[in-house]
Every structure is written in structure tokens, then in C-alpha cells.
Design brief:
By secondary structure, this protein is an alpha+beta fold. The chain is built from 14 helices and 22 strands. The radius of gyration is 33 Å and the shape is elongated.
Length: about 450
Amino acid sequence: MLNDFLTYIQDQQLWQPNDKVLLAVSGGIDSMVLVQLCLSAKVSFGIAHCNFALRGSESDGDQELVEQLAATKSIPFHLAQFDTKAISEKQQKSIQIVARTLRYDWFEQLRQEHDYTVVATAHHLNDSVETVLMNLTNGCGIRGLHGILPQNKAVVRPLLFATKTQIENYAQLLQIAYRTDSSNQNTKYTRNFVRQKVVPLLQQINPNLEQTMQHNITRFRELEALYDQAIAAQKQQVISRKGTAIFIHIEQVATSLLAQSLLYEILAPLGFNTAQVATILQQQQQEKGATYWSNSYQLTKDRTHWIVQPKIENEPINIAIPIPELPHQTTLPQQQLLTWQLLQQKIDFSQQQVAKNCIYIDADKLSFPLLIRSPRPDDIFSPLGMQGKQKKLGKYLRDAKVNALQKETILLLCDADERIIWVIGQRASEPYKITDQTTTILRIEMLSSNSIAPPK
């Protein structure tokens, strides 16, 4: 057992001979065997024990056993006591989730404060087999089949090579004292049910279930590595970025042999779940503008791309502009800068009048105060160049191929009666254009734009 332990640590490169290791020790048979193996291997280590106060005197007995062992062997000992039930009720989360978060957060804090290289837990092969069976039953991707990993950041599992039977035999051989957690017999917990009810039935079919699953897990991890390579290559082809926006090419994803997996791997890190990914893919043909949300991101369907961006909280914008002392500057919420300047000379502005970022209007036609505001569903205006014909703002933006996320940043410059003078960064309004009778020209320019368009 000791030789296998040392070989596994070396093969998996879990730690180096001179590293300090923090052992998570509950007092159960697995963690007490881990302590003995580290003692025999002359590993430099400390012990961390959590008392979750969930089993009354049993919990206190666990703490006493581990604390006595540390004192007897002169092992650095760290103790944390949690009122887990109270914390669970306050956070409205399950006790299991709260306990896991508490202990791993505390382990990481200890690791950093006391210069431990890694935190070692006593998960073994049977734990990994149970994890695969639970994931497979609940539904999972390829990563759900790799079992418990030997290393996850600073947490290592040096007993994953060993079965529960091997651990029990080693404890009996060396007469290692340990505690039994009575809650492990309660089959209301899924893992306990799998361990006590499902695994024994599978072992009737295959008495060597653990070894078979160990081989399967090895193959699953190799397949996962190939899968990751294929996904990474396809991501480069279908994703482009501009600022904080991610553009995902719809057709390229939809025609991929890995379409659902590819889209999931792009969106899952942004908080989108499997059901959302399936829906987004199924609804790829629907009209643009469909929007989906995770906790932190929103995905909007445009003509050729799904556009993903940090969730935008749209508060209606109303900025009143009294008669400004010109020249003047106005900073908009998306950090665009408007500059205002009066021109007195007669100039032919026929070409510039249709520019998106700079307009020239008849100042005498304005009624102050002006207003910069967010669009409304019923907005109508007369785009410059359409001889006074009116058009719904929404239709104009669609015809102008303004994508869904660009629409969320659009602002309007209106007069005192809230008639649209300029769809800022897009088109001025016909009624305010310069004519032969114009005597005073107001030039307004947007110096920077935060528009969101797919990268070229």
C-alpha cells in the first residue's frame, strides 16, 4: 500500500518531497489511513479538522480522536468549528453544500496562511466510481465521466488509486484507530444510496467493478482531452470579439458536427445551462432580437450572430440640455462625447448631412430645452433624405441593419416637444435640415462611439 501510495503521488505529480501538505482529516477510516501513509512516507504535513456540529457527541468524538493523534505524533493541528445548521438556514442552502463550501474555503485560507503547497483529501477509487455513476444517472457531458480528478488547483487526492477494501485491509493490518460516521448509513443521501444499493447490484454483474471503472475512467479522460482539442479548434473559427461583446457565428455553429456541445462549451462558462443552450440552438431560425439571460450575461440573436455581452441594466435616460453656451460638450452615458458648434457662414453641406456621426441642422428651427433620451416603442421620425416621409424608429433601425445590442445603446436627440432631431450616431431628421434660407447652422458631432458591430 505504501509503495503504491508513493508511486501514485510521483506519477500524478501531486507534490514534491520537500513540499508541505495540509491533510483534511475527518477521523474516518479513509483520512486516518492517509495520515498513517504520510507518516510512513515521512511527508511534511499538518492536519486540518472541521467540526460541523451536526452529529452532537459524535462530532465531538471525531474532533477528540484527530486532535489526540496530532498531539501524539507532534503534527501541526488546525481546528475549525462551524454552526453549520444555522449557516445553512441563513443562506437557505442545503447543509451538504454549505459544509463543503465552509471546509474548502477554510482549507484554502490555511494553505495560504501557513505556506502549505497543497491540500490533500482522502477520496479513493470507490468515491470516484460513485461520482461517475451519479453523474451518468443525472445526465452529464464528457467531463462528468472522468470521475474525481487527482488534482483540482491546490486540492489533491493521493488515495484515488486505492479501493475501499484496500484501505480497510491496511487499517486492520496496522490497527489504525478511526471513527465511523453514522450518517453514512442514511440512504436518503444520493451518494449513500448509490454506495449501498446500486454498487452491490452492479458488482453481482461484475465482481471487479472498481478495476473496470478505473480503466473506463482512464479512457474517458483520454477522450475528454481529444474533445477539448476539437472544441478549442472550432471555437477559434466561430467566435470573434469586440470590446466586451462576443460574437458567435450562427451558421458555422449550427452546421458543426459538435453543434450543441460547441455552443455549450462557449456559453457554460458565462452561466448558461444545458436547457438554455438547447433552446438557443433550436430557435436559431426565429426572428432576430430573441434574448436569453444567465445571471451575468445576456445573449441576443442578430441576423448572422448570437451576440453575448455582460448584462445591461437599461435605466431610461433623460438628459435635458438648456440653451447651451456654444461651443459646448455633452458626455453621454456610454462615454460618447457630443460637441456643439455654431457656424455663421454659408457652406454646402449636402454630403455631410447624411453622415452618421456628424450632423448640421438649422439652429433657428430648434425649440429649447433639448432632450437626450432613450427610445420608446412608439417613436416615429422623418429620416433625412426621405422628403419628409415618416418611419417607425424600430423599422428604421432594422432596415439600417442595426444589431440587437447596438439598439440598446441608441439614444435620441429631441426638441422641447420631444420630436426627434437625431437618432444619435445614425441619422438626422428631415425637418431640421439646412436649406437656402438657413442663417445659423448648428454642427453636432459624436467624437467616439460605443457601437457594437461584428469585427471585420
